[in-house]
Amino acid sequence: MPKRTDLSSILIIGSGPIVIGQACEFDYSGAQACKALRQEGYRVILVNSNPATIMTDPELADATYIEPLTVDVLEKIIARERPDALLPTVGGQTGLNLGVALAEQGILDR
User: How is residue 54 annotated by DSSP?
Assistant: First the structure.
């Protein structure tokens, strides 16, 4: 797949605290996404509320936010960082729900 040259920074939404049915597999996939995207030259911005994950290692992302995973917090981070793309899929159901909420509230259009 060819590299998207219209993107320079990507915001990744983590899965937050470990709960039944949503645990280490999302941490692993998120960490791998950070590595792969940075290797391709993208600036990676990570948001996760769980500091006890591999994904939140400061070496994996260009900017790491350990903050509550809420629409309000993500809106502020998006306003500050101005990412070109959003990757919610490696955050499991939490990431997907937040991605949908951000889109429905028009935050991604700003």
Answer: S
Q: Any idea which residue has 């509320």 for tokens?
A: 49
pLDDT in tens, 43-75: 999 999 999 888 899 899 999 999 999 999 999
Question: Residue 105 CB: number of other CB atoms within 10 A?
Answer: 12
Tokens of 30: 């998120």
The CATH architecture annotation of domain 10-109 reads: 3-Layer(aba) Sandwich (3.40)
Q: What is the pLDDT of residue 3?
A: 86
Beta strands in the chain (DSSP E): 9-13, 43-48, 63-66, 85-87
Q: With the C-alpha atoms ordered 63, 33, 23, 104, is the resulting torsion angle positive or negative?
A: positive
